[in-house]
Structure formats: structure tokens, C-alpha cells
Amino acid sequence: MARIQSVLRRSQGTQDAEISIACSDVVAFDGWELHRTERSLLSPTGLVVALSNAEFRLLNTFLQTPRRLLSRDQLMEQARGRAMDAFERSIDLLVSRLRQKLADDASEPSMIKTVRGAGYLFNVQSVQVRAAWRA
User: Fold this and answer.
1) Considering the domain 2-130 in this protein, what is its CATH number?
2) How far apart (Å, rounded) are the C-alpha atoms in residues 102 and 93?
3) Which of 10, 17, 121, 128 would give a disulfide with 113, using CB separation of 3.0 to 4.6 Å?
């Protein structure tokens, strides 16, 4: 009974975290800030990085499930809003573009890791949420 309760408690914590990330205005991760209402990405040096709609949705999907392996099908469905054809590899191109914008080295990626045959893992140290400051 104690094992079941501990599993339920742990799963409830991740669901609460996902809900708070989904409802927040600003999500900070590893020095970066994603401002959802403005749909802008702020680099650790303070530069605004332009994101396409697809890149924004993909980053948003990664931030809602950090440190969790997502298959190509899951990413395509959540980020693109549609199912993927069996041989469609457009998600790979989208991940590659997002890596470039996040300055994640393609030969040794640290933020978006490829798990061969399984999908992608958004491997960030911490994800913090806060409301945007309004003047």
C-alpha cells in the first residue's frame, strides 16, 4: 500500500509541475527565458531570439515535459497538432533548427539530446516559472 501511495504522490507532483508550466507567462531554463505571451525567447546574454511558430510550439512542448523522453510521433502530435506519416522526418529538421537557435552544439548536444531509435530528451538543469512583469 505504501508503494502505491508513493507512486501516486510522485506522479501527482509531476502533473502539478506540468500544469504550472503550462499556465505560466514566463518559463526560465538554463539562463534562457521563454515569454509565452510575447512569443519571444531571451538568450542568457539578453538577446531576443526569433522563433517560428513551429519552433515556439516545439520548445513549449519540451518545456512542459523536461527530462522526459518524447518520441517523434509524440513531438509531432503535440508540437504540430497532427499525426506523422511513417517516413516523415520534418520533426528532425525542426529539432535541428531549435538546437541552432539555443546554441546547442549539434555534434555534442547538451540541451536537446537524441536517443537513437526512441526520440528526443530535453535535458535542462532547471525549469522555473513566473508571471510576466507588467507595467
Assistant:
1) 1.10.10.10
2) 14
3) 121
User: Among 23, 12, 44, 13, which Cα is nearest to 130's?
Assistant: 23
Neighbours of 114 (CB within 10 A): 14
The residue whose grid cell reads 539578453 is 46
Residue 115 pairs with which residues in a beta bridge? 119
Domain ranges across the chain = 2-130
Least confident range of 15-24, 76-85, 102-111: 15-24
What is d(CA 64, CA 7) in angstroms, rounded to the nearest whole number? 20
Q: What is the mean pLDDT of residues 58-87?
A: 80
Three-class secondary structure of residue 50 per DSSP: coil
| Distant-in-sequence, close-in-space partners of 39: CB < 8 Å, separation ≥ 6 | 51, 56
Does residue 95 or residue 81 have the better pLDDT?
Answer: 95
